Amino acid sequence: MKSSTVHVRPYDEGDEGSVVALWGAVFPDPAPRNTPRLVIEEKLKLQRDLFFVALCDGAVVGTAMGGYDGHRGWLYTVAVRPDMQRRGIGRALVDHVLAALAALGCPKVNLQVLPTNAAVVGFYERLGFSVEERISMGRVL
């Protein structure tokens, strides 16, 4: 697909098949709690207005989700179709989520990156994020 104008808009239920395929290509072998259809279903129950897709020539080529608890914001599932990467789509999605979070009064945004994904760390650093000395902890419920 040659480069065209990218449009970011809120997720629509009609996007599900395209988003599932995209996440399968970008995030292979997710944990059972992170399967695309489950993540989509849960996001649509809570802050669905912070779930965005990027379209190019009418096709879903990227996604990003945000979350905000009134104290900190989070950036999740920034994904761009592999053949469309390095065209500014990821930046457009991140900017869109950050603007939506800022409009809610969010003072700070966090995100997590796997330590083996140095290229993604570099991407976020170019967007103004910095590595913070924190220990990320989680617990499956």
- Figure out the total of helices: 4
Contiguous low-pLDDT stretches (5 residues minimum) are: none
Annotated CATH topology: Aminopeptidase
CATH class: Alpha Beta
Beta strand count: 5
Fraction in beta strands:
15-25%
The sequence of SSEs as H and E is EHHEEEHEH
> Which CATH-level-2 architecture?
3-Layer(aba) Sandwich
Largest sheet: 5 strands, mixed
Keywords:
141 residues; alpha+beta; Aminopeptidase; five-stranded mixed sheet; 5 strands; globular
Could you outline the blueprint of secondary structure elements for this entry?
Elements: E1 6-10, H1 16-26, H2 36-45, E2 51-56, E3 59-68, E4 73-80, H3 89-103, E5 109-110, H4 118-126
Describe this structure in words.
This protein is an alpha+beta fold. The protein has one domain: 3-Layer(aba) Sandwich (Aminopeptidase). The chain is built from 4 helices and 5 strands, in the order βααβββαβα. A 5-stranded mixed β-sheet has the order 1-2-3-4-5. Helix 3 links the parallel strand 4 and strand 5. The termini are far apart. The model has no long low-confidence stretch (mean pLDDT 93).
Short structural summary:
The protein has 141 residues and is an alpha+beta fold. The chain has one domain (6-126): 3-Layer(aba) Sandwich (Aminopeptidase).
